[in-house]
């Protein structure tokens, strides 16, 4: 088809569409149904977005609740391990935090948590990892038949257990911890300056 025929065909097509469209575009029923359809689609999309945001917040809350429960168990395990560290009783404790690891590695923490909480939980996860490695090293020493474990060999394990315990207390904001005391001093300073 040459260009003259192509132009003639396009001209005919555009005039035909314009005639049909003119009648359609002036029809009130067409506009009413178009507007109703667009509003319905908009409402459906907004409802879906609202439902997804609500579900994401609920899932974040469930993860956070699991982390709180898990950190309470870890705190208890640290206390018991520190009490029985000389007798080799620590070999029965498992220092791990899968809920914390899941929360930190997922997008929910970055989307819903304040920056400070994110930093605290990431730091807490690092302390859990260091303590886990120390416990495994201690278990290998006991498993290798080390009958007498020197205090210098127990020092890293004790240090990591105490750091994890203090980190959990700071994360939970328990009274008497350095973080809670700093928050209290900050409040008192803020009140005194007004």
What does this structure look like?
The protein has 194 residues and is mainly α. It has one domain. Helices cover 82% and strands 0% of the residues. It has 7 helices and no strands. Helix 2 runs antiparallel to helix 3 and helix 5 runs antiparallel to helix 6. The relative contact order is 0.08.
Write a brief caption for the model:
The protein is an all-alpha fold. It has helices at 3-25, 28-83, 98-105, 107-112, 115-143, 151-172, 178-192.
Query: How far apart are the termini?
Result: 86 Å
Helical content band:
over 70%
The total domain count is 1
Oligomeric composition of the shown chains: single chain
Tell me the series of helices and strands, N- to C-terminal: HHHHHHH
Query: Which structural class do the helices and strands define?
Result: mainly alpha
Number of strands: 0
Q: Mean pLDDT, as a whole number?
A: 78
| Helical segment count | 7
The biggest sheet amounts to:
none
What's the gyration radius in Å?
33 Å
The shape is: elongated
Q: Low-confidence segments, ≥5 residues, pLDDT <50?
A: 185-194
Hey, roughly how much beta strand do the residues contain? under 5%
List keywords for this structure.
mainly alpha; 82% helix; 7 helices; single chain
């Amino acid at each position: 088809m040459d260009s003259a025929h192509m132009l003639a065909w396009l001209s005919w097509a555009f005039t035909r569409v314009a005639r049909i469209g003119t009648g359609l575009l002036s029809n009130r029923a067409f506009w009413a149904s178009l507007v109703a359809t667009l509003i319905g689609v908009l409402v459906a999309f907004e409802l879906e977005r609202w439902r997804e945001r609500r579900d994401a917040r609920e899932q974040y809350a469930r993860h956070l609740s699991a982390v709180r429960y898990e950190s309470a168990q870890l705190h208890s395990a640290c206390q018991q391990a520190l009490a029985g560290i000389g007798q080799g009783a620590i070999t029965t404790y498992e220092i791990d935090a899968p809920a914390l690891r899941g929360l930190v590695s997922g997008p929910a923490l970055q989307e819903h948590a304040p920056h400070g909480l994110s930093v605290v939980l990431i730091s807490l996860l690092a302390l859990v990892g260091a303590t886990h490695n120390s416990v495994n090293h201690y278990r290998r020493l006991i498993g290798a038949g080390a009958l007498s474990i020197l205090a210098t060999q127990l020092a890293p394990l004790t240090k990591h257990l105490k750091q994890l315990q203090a980190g959990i207390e700071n994360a939970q904001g328990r009274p008497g911890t350095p973080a809670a005391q700093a928050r209290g001093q900050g409040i008192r300073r803020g009140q005194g300056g007004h």
